Amino acid sequence: MSDRNTYSFAHDGQSITLHSPTELPNASGFLWNSQMMINMNCRGYAISQFMQPEPAKYSYAPNMEAKTFMQPEHAYFSHHPGRFFYIKDEDTGEIFSAPYEPVRASLDAFDFVLNKHNINWVIRKLDIEVQLSLSLTVDKPIELWTVAIKNLSDRARNISVYPYFSIGYMSWLNQSAAFDSYLNAIVATCVTPYQKVEDYPKLKEFKDKTFLIADRKPISWTANQKAFEGEGGLHNPCALTNQYLAKEEAIYETPVAVLQYQFNLAPQISKSLKLIFGAAKTNDDIAQIKEHFFTTRQENRLEDGFTDELKQYENYVNSGKSNINIASPDAEFNHVINHWLPRQVFYHGDVNRLSTDPQTRNYLQDNMGMSYITPSLTKQSFITSLSQQLSSGVMPDGILLHPDAELKYINQVPHTDHCVWLPICLSVYLSETNDQSLLNQQIPFVDSAKTQSVKQHIDLAMESLIAARDHRGLSFIQQGDWCDPMNMVGHKGKGVSAWLSLATAYALNTWADLCEIYTNDHDKTEYYRKIATEINEAVNLNLWDGKWYGRGITDDNVVFGVHKDVEGRIYLNPQSWSILSGAANKDKICSMLDEVKQQLSTPFGDMMLAPSYTTMRDDVGRLTQKHPGVSENGAVYNHAAIFYAYSLYTINKGDEAFSILKKMIPSLDDAEKRGQLPNFIPNYYRGAYKQFPNQAGRSSQLFNTGTVAWFQRCIVEGLCGLKGVKGELVIYPQLPSHWNEMEITRLYLGAQFNVKIVRKNINEMYIKLDGKKLSNNIISNIKQGKSYDLNISIPLKNSDNGI
Amino acid sequence: MSDRNTYSFAHDGQSITLHSPTELPNASGFLWNSQMMINMNCRGYAISQFMQPEPAKYSYAPNMEAKTFMQPEHAYFSHHPGRFFYIKDEDTGEIFSAPYEPVRASLDAFDFVLNKHNINWVIRKLDIEVQLSLSLTVDKPIELWTVAIKNLSDRARNISVYPYFSIGYMSWLNQSAAFDSYLNAIVATCVTPYQKVEDYPKLKEFKDKTFLIADRKPISWTANQKAFEGEGGLHNPCALTNQYLAKEEAIYETPVAVLQYQFNLAPQISKSLKLIFGAAKTNDDIAQIKEHFFTTRQENRLEDGFTDELKQYENYVNSGKSNINIASPDAEFNHVINHWLPRQVFYHGDVNRLSTDPQTRNYLQDNMGMSYITPSLTKQSFITSLSQQLSSGVMPDGILLHPDAELKYINQVPHTDHCVWLPICLSVYLSETNDQSLLNQQIPFVDSAKTQSVKQHIDLAMESLIAARDHRGLSFIQQGDWCDPMNMVGHKGKGVSAWLSLATAYALNTWADLCEIYTNDHDKTEYYRKIATEINEAVNLNLWDGKWYGRGITDDNVVFGVHKDVEGRIYLNPQSWSILSGAANKDKICSMLDEVKQQLSTPFGDMMLAPSYTTMRDDVGRLTQKHPGVSENGAVYNHAAIFYAYSLYTINKGDEAFSILKKMIPSLDDAEKRGQLPNFIPNYYRGAYKQFPNQAGRSSQLFNTGTVAWFQRCIVEGLCGLKGVKGELVIYPQLPSHWNEMEITRLYLGAQFNVKIVRKNINEMYIKLDGKKLSNNIISNIKQGKSYDLNISIPLKNSDNGI
């Protein structure tokens, strides 16, 4: 298979095709709606969950799995939940399975095709073509599958097709499954395990049924996993050696949904099948789904509900478009920026990682990204967040999005950074909308019904940050700042964070900027700027280590993240944010960038720290117990890397910033190393580049990450340089040196800007708006509904004097 | 394989051999010590845990498993933790695996041999014999394995042997594994996942290493599960296609421990190997294990530590002998009673189900069983239990056995029956020991350091039972009595339990009996008897349903477990305990027994209730949500069945009682249906005999059950009729009608009774002690250290006038 690329983009960038089931075995796509998420890997394994309101399963592991958050580098195994299609040539007895698991037969052709709104495969083997397609509805916890089997040969064929949908170990309390003829569905039923009587009222409302319903009557079925598999094993199940499945029920046994279809296929003829798999509360609900999806009502429409729902879902996903499109010399980069990045930003902003209690910083940043897609949702999220603020100004660790939601997992650990994100994220919303009315909106507090304006809320948040500092003026870290597992630097109440101090200064400056633009409160503006300067000075005094900034000072007054440290010698975040906050002068920046390049740079991006810790450091915390190169312990942690990229754009380091963006996206050169397609940006790639070179670059496969909102911001404000400021567009594109031109379509305040950027032999940028040269780089008086042609000429060589 | 039995006992009954890996695929043996438990199934899968102090894993599932109690009918799957031995004929490339998983090759011979102190296999395939043996130490969380490979052919062979020990998904925080040449071991290391800083001090003491150490140097190894398996799958791993394993480490990847040995075996020659697998905190600990187990110290002994530890473990297990042995006409029954039942009783009493917070009722009953083995431990358990009693008399839901222990799972649900078990279990201890000093022992309370005597503690317990009754004199059930999931009968505070009322009456009578024997407090004695009578009358008045007793009265005053109920029409427990308490008169008993036979009897024992509930009844509770026929929802729940058997012995229904005992033990006739060997008595067999006949009889495979203490009691007091009463032996054997003789060895108060029972054509039992006829059925003045010959003649026909 070395004669072709591992994967390819469609010409329009809207689909990505992987051509092998073994080269990137963990490559996957994900689909979501307001009720569920499914992460489907190329070989047929699935991770799926729906909300009731907490994440629940309808396709379970073969054992009783822990309820927990999504784990990086998810481990697959034979009986991992999957969606398999066994194919049997009834004339020869040969079998294989699509898409690849569990038979793992060597296939004649394999295409795993990711569209934005569905996930597909085209498989060929034994002169049979199997086409699979998975999509979702807009709002139901069900998967919509279509299967087509085609006889590619010149002879008639008898083919059995067995859709095998894992149901798994549902419950020790009660689990069973059988075929329901009326519904034409396998229905598995369980009772979610519990022991306390007070849990019953909630649990009795659960969707405790898993069903697989088909639009055609199967010739046989089985619902008993063990009986299906027999001694043959999942790769060679005994049940397939018989002509028909044995119609075994699961009676307090592990359920499965297997249907059998027999197709007599003339040469070149195909047959197809529609299947729905998901969760339901009652059989009546399933009957309604049958009625809705599989009945064609001639009076209303030509198509059945199934086809209609597919279209609605496609429309839903396509509604997640950003307000910027690019046509650069880098086609793959264009595809990602125009399709896959906004898709991921939309996912974050629209369903908030399908959590009922997203971490406050995640919720705010995810919605910052939504400013580029549906800013009305960003606004709503601000209102929701601020209504959960304490009247002291402190923000909670998570934002509760459901009446039954509770703070779980990491949200039970107190973090100190949440207020920082309010002005930062608000600034993007205001940049994109100029909606100053939000600042005056009256909102209550979680502990007080008395309302105050958004501006007052943020003032209070800033005051709480200002107050939470030590005698040196540095911010206390308590049990963590942005970095969750940095939980023992300040757990005794004394330790401080360089990053949080700098982030506080940046937040204060950002808020001062907004106050300057939108309020007349000059005293406040100056006050915030003065404190920011004090903080920057305190950081420079206490945490500049000679060549870079340290990461913090422990409870026992030990500065760490400094040259004396053998491990965790340099952290990326304080460097990036010293640029954003204005703490670092030009000399410091030069020195820092050099050190970042020397110590943190890898072919897969910049590591969050180096060297990775190999033993517990109990004045830093849990971070140091993570595996070296994994996650916060020195991975290429993309959220940190994108902060760095953004900070570089703010000092006109467009080449360096672009290099970081590029390294975040898997390419044909390194996809096998990363193990991922460029359909999303993962939360990390393995770091510890010098310590564990063989694993370095491997994707976490986690598509939940604060990275993408900032990536989108980097595109708009940095690369394209089309930033909104108080309703005007400020133009400062920063193309990488090797690009000589780029076209952009930018929507802003209801107007469309058709932008062409060309390098010319000039000394200074030169801008024409609708053919007329601008005297500066600001477009004012933008008219809603109007389309503008913007021609930007830039010098051949990027300037490097922005600092 | 139909030419031989599924399994066989060794002549002495001390070992049980299963001859097929597929006929009873879930058949298993278990081993334990004070630190760990392993349940090893015949095909090579293992469930193992050790205490630190809560149950922890060293061999994990392939995903992140929920921490929970042991589940019935445990589900196995390909990547379930196991201990496998791949065998490869290097000359032909053929492979198979011992004992059976994961290759599942058809074997020429398969013996799974359970001894009391170890678990063994003898496998033959490709003219190779593989002998495996697993044992434990007395006090360490490690498994001791020996492997012998023999060339059965007449040609020299080159054989590779690959011990494969699952390590699994250890932790998302940190996991890795590699071979350590110095230790000659694969060592996997993880950090137990956590998020809260306050958990760190405890977690840092955890044994977070899993190791496999060998007494021979392997020729190669791998520690990376995925790399070992490749695309071939666990049944045909890619790694075996190469000459040598590739020495791959696991670097934040799923670890495994695979070693490779190559043996050149001359005809009929065998080679062997010793392996140790388990948990450790540090590499130094592993080094000490290596030193201790694999070094032969000539000065001290001829054998290495490994062999020595095996012997110590054998001695430990063999110390768990009961004080009664039988030689009846039923050889299999003898084997179980003489070896496997006391082994299981000993397990319960010695390590308390390896729980740090056993349910109070379980702890007391398990230790009741220990009265027949090591009564000093029973005594200690009484003292421990009563020191956790509230000064109000109420017993807690669980007994904490470790300073760090907390009430978990079901112990967080309030139950009302715990006090009942105090006099009942104490009566057995006193019966066996006549140790009246215990009654005067001073013990504090959990909420008061002021001590009171055991007698006073039990008086208080009885008063708390007496007080917890309604206006009718019936016992409130709150959120459950003996039946945990009967949690909604009385959760509003009004519902009452027939069983608990009867059990209270029985407890009061039992305590009155003890008071009569051991105290001069005649007023108290009469007082307790009077209340017991009142309770019995209240039950007869309110809960006699015409042909049997109902189970209780709900919060809304609905009597349930009665003829009007379509489901849950009759429950076994109230019938049994109405016999024990004296509530049921002869007519009622006749009627009840008839109904039990009609409605509850199955070939696998008597069901706990019938018909099993098929839908939630929310005035009964969670019990009705369990799968029909499973566990408390109408299984042959052996704990309930043994109560019934015991009650039958108390009314001289020896045939009926014996029939229940027999049905608890898998036999050659029904082992396949039960899916279990007669090495233990499970907590249930599937019931719902009429509703789900195909599954009826299937074993839960759970060997934790209060059944065995009562089974032992039935043997001593019922079948053998050799009950201790105030230091005397009261003789009343109840042989089943089809037995004409039985020999018994009974130890009592340090004396040994060699008993022969023979049926003769007489009308009344006739007893000779050392050749001298006794005037009654009581042996007094028993001399410690003396051996007595006891000849008992009984009539040909069992009398039926005991009621």
Structural features, described:
Two copies of one chain form a homodimer. Helices cover 27% and strands 25% of the residues of chain A. Chain A is an alpha+beta fold and 803 residues long. In chain A, helix 3 crosses helix 4 and helix 8 packs parallel to helix 11. The radius of gyration of chain A is 28 Å and the shape is globular.
Helix/strand class of chain A:
alpha+beta
Task: Tell me which protein chains meet in the greatest interface and how many residues each side has.
Answer: A-B, 61 and 61 residues
The value of Rg of chain A in angstroms is: 28 Å
Number of strands of chain A: 41
Shape of chain A: globular
Number of helices of chain A: 18
For the sheet with most strands of chain A, the description reads:
11 strands, antiparallel
Strand content of chain A: 25-35%
User: Quick check: average pLDDT of chain A?
Assistant: 96
Oligomeric status = homodimer
Strand order of the largest sheet of chain A: 1-2-9-10-11-12-20-16-15-14-18
Helix content of chain A: 25-40%
Q: Unreliable stretches of chain A, pLDDT < 50, 5 or more residues?
A: none
Distance between the termini of chain A: 49 Å
